[in-house]
Amino acid sequence: METLIQSEMRKVDVELSPEMLSKCVAIAANHDIKPAKLAGIWEAHSMNNNYDSHGLTEANFTSFRGAVLQSVKKSGSNKKKIAVTPASTSASKRSAGAAVVSRPAMTKRTNSVYDSPDSKRAKTGTDSSSQLDQIANGNTNIASPTATVKRERSSGSSVVTPSGVGTTSTRASTGTARPGSSSAIGYDQRKNAGSTVITYNPQNLSPKSKMVNIGNERLCTITQPFSQHLTKTVRHMTDRPRHVHLNNHLQSQVQELIEVLNIPMQLTEEEEHDNHQGQENETVKKDSNNSHQWPPYEHVGVPRQSLQTNVGRICNAAHVGKLNTTTIVLEGTKQGSNGSRIELDVSTLEQKNNASFSLFPGQIVAVSGYNCSGRRMVVERLVEGALPMPKNNEEENVNNNNNNVSIGLQTVKTSKAELTRMQYSQETNCQNGKPITVFAAAGPYTTNRDLTYQPLTDLLEVVMDAKPDVVLLMGPFLDMRQELVKENDGEHLTVEYEDGIKAHVSYEQFFMVKIAMELEGLFEDEPDLKTQFVIVPSLDDAIAEPVYPQPPLEDAIPNGGKIMKFFPDTEDTPYGALGLNKIERAGDRKIPKNPTDRRIHLVSNPSTIQINEVSFGFTSTDTFMHLSTESINHKLPPGTRLIRLAEHAVKQQSYYPIYPPPSGAGKEINLDVTQRDAYTMPVQPDVLVLPSRLTPLATDIVNGDTIAVNPGLLVKGATGGTYAIMEIHPMKKEQMEKASAVENGLLRHNVKDRVRVEVRRI
Questions:
Q1: Is the dihedral of CA 328, 334, 335, 340 positive or negative?
Q2: Which residues touch 206 (CB under 8 Å, ≥6 apart)?
Q3: Ramachandran angles phi, psi of 609, nearest 5°
Q4: Do residues 577 and 561 make contact, with C-beta atoms less than 8 angstroms apart?
Q5: What region, left, alpha or beta, does residue 349 occupy, with left being phi > 0 and alpha being psi -120 to 50 degrees?
Q6: Which residues pair with 608 in a beta bridge?
Q7: In degrees, to the nearest 5, what angle opens at C-alpha 309 toward C-alphas 303 and 314?
Q8: What is the DSSP letter of 210?
Q9: Is the CB of residue 690 less than 8 Å from the CB of residue 681?
Q10: What is the rounded distance in angstroms from the CA atom of residue 125 to the CA atom of residue 121?
Q11: Distance between CA atoms of residues 28 and 36, nearest Å
Q12: Cis peptide upstream of residue 296 (ω within 30 degrees of 0)
């Protein structure tokens, strides 16, 4: 029993201490619970209470036991007496040590990102495993393999050394032990490092040859042509009423949805009499061309004995708890419906064999049905926003306005001449017929047991070896949910120098030496490295604005403040600076005047950019997780739940379409609806990157016009996670010629036909 429980718990990324294992064995035996079910209860309980980074400890065992008892009570499958296991009252306290902040030296990665998993295992000597989250037992006192680099202080000879390097007793001095864990498994003991989790390659494109990366010329240009995203800090919590912005958004979405779905407007009695004959002929003509004709549009809450169509926002009548089929209400606009709400009865939809739906609070939908009382509609048909119109080449030239429209969203198109220049020209920042490679990774970048940032170092070694064109780094970089960050007084991180002097560093300084100095070292080692980095903040970042949407990262004091001599630990860096300018100067390089020539691109969260012609949309907020916990689904085809969640973002033209945001541990979000334009999708992106704790994903959505990618998180608790590699090949010249003849000059990018995506373990 002990072996089975330990094995099942490892599958959900939990390593049980001997004490916790004995308690789990006892509770499983007393209530006749199978090990797999016990692990499933813990997985659901930990996600609901944000215990993922803590594991099963004395502190949370009581609540876990309550969840087990509740599950047993619901199933009614066990009548045994509950055995109460007293919790330990003498939990050992971890000494508050110092997190160390100097940059480890870059070490050359011996196995290439292009090596096969078999050859990589041969080099590393690790065994294969088919499970992503399985990790091996190990000794946490093993020193990190990262080399020590000493950095002189400006006011003395003492130095800073990395946490957990060159010592076998790092817990007492650095505070890297996992709170409440007597048996820890380190990041270094993970298995299957570098192996592929999923691959998306619909055209069976060959992997990019490593020889293509030889040379340091840039193959692409990063631009931000979409102006509605935040570029600087804004004043939140103003006196502007939220309901005005919510209603304005609803009003605009309703009008666009009516136009896209071609919903006829309700005529008055006088108009019906005057236009009876013409309307009758028009109706016959429309019915002959469109078998999905909508009933006339009516404002929400207006009773009618005939079929009508309403468009509005989905809300939860219960206000507290998750949306369910008995609490679905539809809210209308203030102008047309005075904000009225009606109950939606979806029982008729549930009885239809081919009807499926997925609903969440804040979703703009169109429904048709009977509302005889003005308070409740029996829904006959429901559309979750609007997918792009079906492509019909015969009708494309006749009515071009109805093609590739998704609630007003347009896909980006580029002229044939510009595509040819970007993809086949030998000019600077052009591809010259070569594919471009984009890495995507999301934080945290260090495990929940230490602040060494070894996973980030490993990722940068992969970057040094593969030399991708662009690396998309999404926060959090300094995670406020990390126990070692939270426990350092909530304000400072402590650094202990070799001479025994302890000093406090600000969050900005910690970011500088753990992130900025790592990137700086990358370019110091290879000044001509062509890779460009796009840095996206997170709501969990200690160095970023805590309100969504977020502006780009910036110094705590404008222009970096001043160098303060009475803060010797700041050295020659202005107090409050993030040190990103040093990256541009690494390798004796002058800071370029043209923003597109920079190595580091700071963007907002969320943001939409273009890499050459391809549009990328992304947000570091876990939209997938929030949608998953708040939505209700009915009869979704097997394996399409994550695809449906990704399509919600596009159909609602928003990087965060939920309103109000979910509550509960791990799902909190400060959402500023007065800045809604800043998290609205300006275009339908060619590639949509939504990092999440959920299963990694790479697939096409919305009729193949968008590639949705969930790279996962680089670190999952105490072990490694995943990141994504995207290779985008040039469009074939013959396809370009053919498309140019059909689409009158402006061409769709058709990324689906020329992309290869892999999600790999770090």
A1: positive
A2: none
A3: -130, 170
A4: yes
A5: alpha
A6: 617
A7: 95
A8: G
A9: no
A10: 5
A11: 10
A12: no
Residue 708: which H helix or E strand, with range? strand 706-710
Q: How many CB atoms lie within 10 A of CB 167?
A: 16
Percent helix, strand, coil in the chain, to 5, is 30, 20, 50
Averaged pLDDT score across all residues of the chain? 77
Task: Point out the least confidently predicted range of 293-297, 431-435, 438-442, 742-746.
Answer: 742-746
Is residue 736's pLDDT more than 50?
A: yes
**Rounded-to-integer distance, Cα 310 and Cα 296, Å:** 9
At residue 165, the 3 state secondary structure works out as coil
Give SS3 for 540. coil
CA 400 – CA 506 distance, rounded (Å): 56
Return the HEC string of 722-758. Answer: EEEEEEECCCCHHHHHHHHHHCCCEEECCHHHHEEEE
Asked if 171 and 177 touch (Cβ cutoff 8 Å), the reply is yes
CA atoms within a 13 Å half-sphere pointing along the CA-CB vector of 224: 17
Q: Name the DSSP letter for residue 338.
A: T
Give this prediction's pTM: 0.74
Rounded to whole angstroms, the maximal C-alpha distance in the chain is 95
In sequence order, what DSSP letters do the residues of 643-705 get, joined into one string? HHHHHHHHHTTBSS--SSPP-STT----B-GGGGGGGB-SSB-SEEE---SS--EEEEETTTT
119 token code pair: 């050859």
**pLDDT value at residue 406:** 39
pLDDT at 376: 95
Could you tell me the pLDDT band of residue 350, with boundaries at 50, 70 and 90? Answer: confident
Report the C-alpha gap between 657 and 640 in whole angstroms.
Answer: 19
Q: What six digits make up the tokens of 570?
A: 């700041």
Give me the mean pLDDT over the 489-506 stretch: 66
Q: Find where tokens 């910036």 sit.
A: 554
Q: Name the nearest CA neighbour of 16 among 38, 44, 48, 45.
A: 38
Beta-bridge partner residues of 323 = none
